[in-house]
Write a structure and sequence with these properties.
- The structure holds two protein chains of two kinds.
- Chain A contains ten helices and twelve strands.
- By secondary structure, chain A is α/β, with parallel strands linked by helices.
- In chain A, a hairpin with a 2-residue loop joins strand 2 and strand 3 (25-31).
- Chain B is an alpha/beta fold.
- Chain B has one domain: Rossmann fold (3-Layer(aba) Sandwich).
- Chain B contains six helices and 13 strands.
- In chain B, strand 5 and strand 6 form a beta hairpin.
- Chain B is globular, with a radius of gyration of 16 Å.
- The chains are: A alpha/beta, B alpha/beta.
- Chains A and B meet through helix 2, helix 3 and helix 5 of A and helix 1, strand 8, strand 9 and helix 6 of B.
């Protein structure tokens, strides 16, 4: 039997509440993060990702507190990301009960944070989040680059090469988000997902754009992802995690049922 | 049976998850400590581990946890559950971090899955072995009670244990090779997977641990 593909519901948390917007422009409130996490744990989620999208650093204590509460009740792996800038930030989240920490912008400004963190805490707990947009025109060979600030700020960094570099520096996993698709419900950006899963030997989580259960399956079968992350299709009761797993298993994908 | 559990803390990584999970399945008291007296008072002991083996071994020796473990296993003969790097630390030697001498409680090696690790059909297998894999129990150890063969547990590791004596293998996983998912010897049980992160199946195993008298039959 092969390793099961994972379904990871994502909690985008702003000032202590689960939110999910379209292209990162916040709209709907989906509830208390501890309650939502508990529900996903009960539904059979394979992992939970908690992304703190609170802009200000002052809210960090709230986040630590929420992570502590979730970790007390959820007995599956918990990844925490958003605003992680230093080894101290990583330690604080791991001490609060996170199993993995996701590093995003800080990896761009200080790639050595990835190597330092994986040497210190083990690569198994270091996830590098890669937010990409397609920059090539229609008909041109596809090129994707990293963007920061919720997809607003270009960096000029090419995505596949960056993924290889992060893996070489000791990232244990990559969380790949298409900022073109995030919040659109049009499905994963499969071209870049496939390019990156083929390029690295570490697990890749596909993220951004899930609107249907078929999209989740496509992320694995076409994108080659080891795990698929989604938020809104689970938050608002359209589908349970259990339904998603059954749907994917029906398509021959190994799942933990 | 009283359910006072000590989780040996040698300063590596987050032990809240293990403690919370033990409390969740009925432990009346969970002490996270490396104080020999606090641990001597416990009915059973968990020896966890996360991170690189070199740092773990350094911390284990510096805090005297090697002697502590010896006391608990051989003198006090408490039921002990070792998890992940805790299990690896029990072996003779690990290949990780350019080779690190471990506790040699169980003769054997801890080896890397390898670059370009492949499955039976030549498919590429990613390392770390991260995620939910099926476990086949070997024998009928009390810790497997209520857990069906082929149940999935959560693994995250790049190195795996190869004991010299195959008789200590209490469970296996398949990942391009048949690896050791669990070990058992007398009052010691060890898992490569994380029961505290393995949802219902993991909680069942932890509950079985709380009810275990430390014998293998």
């Amino acid at each position: 039997m092969a390793l099961a593909k994972r379904i990871i519901p994502c909690l985008d948390v702003d000032q202590g509440r689960v939110v999910k917007g379209v292209n990162f422009v916040g709209i709907r409130d989906a509830g208390d993060p501890v309650e939502v996490a508990r529900r996903y744990n009960d539904e059979g989620a394979d992992e939970i990702t908690f992304l703190d999208i609170t802009a200000s650093h002052e809210e960090r204590d709230t986040t630590v507190n929420t992570v502590e509460q979730i970790a007390r009740e959820v007995f599956i792996p918990l990844t925490v990301g958003g605003g992680i800038r230093s080894l101290q930030d990583i330690r604080a989240m791991l001490n609060a009960g996170a199993d993995k920490v996701s590093i995003n912008t800080a990896a761009i400004h200080h790639p050595e944070l990835v190597s330092d963190a994986s040497a210190r805490f083990g690569s198994q707990c270091i996830v590098v989040a890669i937010d990409v947009k397609r920059v090539s025109g229609p008909g041109d060979p596809p090129r994707y680059e990293l963007f920061t600030h919720g997809g607003r700020k270009p960096t000029g960094i090419e995505a596949v090469e960056w993924a290889r570099r992060m893996a070489a520096l000791g990232a244990g996993e990559l969380l790949l988000t298409s900022m073109d698709r995030d919040g659109t419900r049009d499905g994963f950006e499969l071209t870049i997902t496939r390019a990156i899963t083929d390029a690295v030997d570490i697990p890749v989580i596909a993220s951004g754009g899930v609107g249907t259960l078929q999209h989740l399956a496509d992320g694995v079968t076409q994108g080659g992802a080891d795990a698929v992350l989604a938020a809104s299709i689970f938050h608002f009761g359209e589908h349970t995690v259990g339904e998603a797993k059954a749907f994917m298993a029906d398509q021959g994908i190994p799942m933990r049922l | 049976m009283t359910q006072r559990v000590a989780v040996i803390d040698y300063g590596m990584g987050n032990l809240h998850s293990v403690a919370s999970a033990l409390e969740h399945v009925g432990a009346s008291e969970v002490v996270v400590s490396h104080d020999p007296e606090a641990i001597a008072e416990a009915d059973r002991v968990v020896f966890p581990g996360v991170g690189g083996i070199r740092d773990c071994m350094e911390a284990i020796r510096q805090l005297g946890c090697d002697q502590l473990l010896n006391q608990v296993l051989n003198v006090q003969r408490k039921p002990v559950l070792a998890i992940c790097v805790g299990m690896q630390a029990l072996m003779t030697r690990s290949e990780e971090n350019d080779g690190v001498a471990c506790l040699d409680r169980l003769p054997g090696q801890v080896v890397f899955f390898g670059e370009s690790h492949q499955g039976e059909q030549g498919e590429r297998l990613k390392v770390p072995h991260m995620g939910w894999n099926t476990v086949q129990p070997v024998g009928s150890h009390p810790l497997w009670q209520g857990i069906a063969p082929g149940t999935r547990f959560y693994f995250v590791h790049s190195y795996h244990v190869v004991p010299d004596d195959p008789a200590v293998v209490a469970g296996t996983f398949d990942y391009g090779l048949t690896g050791c998912a669990a070990l058992s010897q007398d009052n010691l049980f060890a898992t490569q997977f994380h029961p505290e992160k393995s949802h219902t199946a993991g909680l069942t195993l932890l509950k079985n641990f709380l009810n275990w008298d430390g014998t293998c039959s």
